[in-house]
TrEMBL record:
<feature type="domain" description="Mechanosensitive ion channel MscS">
    <location>
        <begin position="182"/>
        <end position="250"/>
    </location>
</feature>
<keyword id="KW-0812">Transmembrane</keyword>
<dbReference type="InterPro" id="IPR010920">
    <property type="entry name" value="LSM_dom_sf"/>
</dbReference>
<protein>
    <recommendedName>
        <fullName>Mechanosensing system component YbdG</fullName>
    </recommendedName>
</protein>
<keyword id="KW-0472">Membrane</keyword>
<dbReference type="InterPro" id="IPR023408">
    <property type="entry name" value="MscS_beta-dom_sf"/>
</dbReference>
<keyword id="KW-0997">Cell inner membrane</keyword>
<dbReference type="GO" id="GO:0008381">
    <property type="term" value="F:mechanosensitive monoatomic ion channel activity"/>
</dbReference>
<dbReference type="InterPro" id="IPR006685">
    <property type="entry name" value="MscS_channel_2nd"/>
</dbReference>
<dbReference type="GO" id="GO:0071470">
    <property type="term" value="P:cellular response to osmotic stress"/>
</dbReference>
<keyword id="KW-0346">Stress response</keyword>
<dbReference type="GO" id="GO:0005886">
    <property type="term" value="C:plasma membrane"/>
</dbReference>
<keyword id="KW-1003">Cell membrane</keyword>
<feature type="transmembrane region" description="Helical">
    <location>
        <begin position="140"/>
        <end position="158"/>
    </location>
</feature>
<feature type="transmembrane region" description="Helical">
    <location>
        <begin position="164"/>
        <end position="180"/>
    </location>
</feature>
<dbReference type="InterPro" id="IPR030192">
    <property type="entry name" value="YbdG"/>
</dbReference>
<dbReference type="Pfam" id="PF00924">
    <property type="entry name" value="MS_channel_2nd"/>
</dbReference>
Amino acid sequence: MNFINNQLLKYELDPDLARYLSIVIMILFIAIICFVANLITKKIVIRIITHIVRANQLEWGNIILERQVFRKLSHIVPAIIIYSFSGSFETYESLIEKLAITYIIIAGLMVINSLLNAFNDIYDTFEISKIKPIKGYIQVIKIIVITLGAIVVIANLIGKSPLILLSGFGALSAVLLLVFKDSLLGLVAGVQLAANDMVRVGDWIEMPKYGADGDIIEISLNTVKVQNWDKTITMIPSYALISDSFKNWRGMQNSGGRRIKRSLFIDTTSITFCTEEMIEKFKNILYLSDYIVIKEQEIEEYNTKNEINRSNPVNGRALTNIGVFRSYINNYLQKHPGINQEMTLMVRQLAPNEHGLPLEIYVFTSDISWAVYESVQADIFDHLFAVAPEFGLRLFQNPSGHDLKSIVDGAKEDGMIREVEH
């Protein structure tokens, strides 16, 4: 600054004018240096680093580049130059130094934030990230770093030690707990969720209280993001997964089978003993021929051994159409290609109710995808609804308008109802 001022005075300029001009020239000089340094950093240094990273095909390096860590780091260079030249402005030296340091701290915080984001992105490339997500912990570190950075900035501007500001945090602890309540609850919840392996990214969960029914796509400090099957997004507070009940379908997804649990309601008035004609008919059914032969021999041996008079079908043992139908369903399911034969396969009767006798099919499909599961389930029940009448069984349903119309039409044909002619 003095050198520039002395050079201007050689031209016999007014001392005050020379001083102001020297300040302007110095500012322009510093600005040019900062511009050139920033240009060199971004156009040359960063390009060289980018070329090296991409030439070596480093995945983590590409992630760091995408997060613009080096570009944000380049902002520190002009601040260092300004700080170095602060002594040229004696009157404003202290202020310039404080502002330059503040800018360096802010730029440093931006770099740390980008590094943490890059670290999280790199971690997400590993399979373990779905089991142990760390985004919540990264957010906690960001809060701590930004808080400490803000304290250092304030301490620098007021010219005090950061320790003095930190000592006052005791009085502000209650306020901080109130302000960061959700973050603290989310942190505790995140630790418990990770430690107990309760949820992972990709898990299908149901939480009716929050209208959530779909896959988890993100776990953060405060929220768990769920994409529902209708493609809407539900945000659930992290601590709600600890305090409230929810269903995780991961066990089903890992088991390799998805459960079908549905009943056919049989009209109990259609249940009867099998006649000889029915038995002969059943022998020609693929899934029943062996069963009928074995069962007939077993029943004949039992009745003969116990000298049971079979003139009345109530005496002794006999086949029923519901029992044969149940055996047919069981054999049909054992041969069905869409059913997992390594898991529970059961056809059972439940307690009769006002809708008839529930005949429940309890099996697991071999494919857990939704579309295939629904297709297999529909295929099974399409078939069972169609074959039930072949066993002399009627499936129950509440009377429809068509049923009532049929009754009225039948009554008219029998002359029980006369039409009134107008």
